[in-house]
């Protein structure tokens, strides 16, 4: 795992939220709703003339629109799944670290998004110490690549 991969964690989480919102919005647009006004009167005396608003579904334009939205939605869901997979991989890596100090540094810096100054303050040490310690750890413990059988 590299620092650049760890730095993506917060952005991946935000991207997942944004994609969820887009998909939800698209699902709301899937049905083509139409509105119209009609003239009516009371069924009994005094037969007052009124205007009513009615709503319905546009069957002609809705099929094509649904197909377009479904294709776009599938692309968004595919992108969301890629982001979820990347976030899961990073989270699993963080959980697999045995050294609690390194886990704290990664958690403060990459999960909570604190600056190196704030990470150092939280750990009661010099500003450069956490970054140097993490760099050293990442060099000494490269991620093991899984071989595909």
UniProtKB/TrEMBL annotation:
Keywords: Coiled coil. Residues 2-29 form a coiled coil. The keyword Coiled coil applies. It comes from the Bacteria. This is DUF1492 domain-containing protein.
């Amino acid at each position: 795992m590299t620092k650049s991969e760890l730095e993506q964690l917060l952005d991946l989480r935000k991207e997942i939220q944004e994609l969820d919102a887009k998909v939800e919005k698209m699902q709301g647009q899937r049905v083509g709703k139409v509105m119209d006004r009609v003239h009516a009167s009371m069924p009994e005396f005094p037969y007052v003339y009124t205007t009513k608003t009615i709503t319905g579904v546009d069957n002609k334009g809705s099929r094509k629109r649904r197909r377009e939205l479904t294709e776009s939605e599938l692309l968004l869901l595919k992108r969301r799944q890629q982001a979820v997979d990347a976030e899961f991989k990073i989270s699993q890596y963080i959980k697999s670290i045995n050294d609690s100090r390194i886990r704290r540094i990664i958690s403060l810096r990459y999960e909570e998004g604190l600056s190196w100054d704030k990470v150092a303050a939280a750990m009661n040490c010099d500003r450069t110490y956490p970054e140097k310690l993490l760099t050293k750890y990442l060099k000494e413990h490269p991620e093991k690549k899984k071989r595909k059988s």
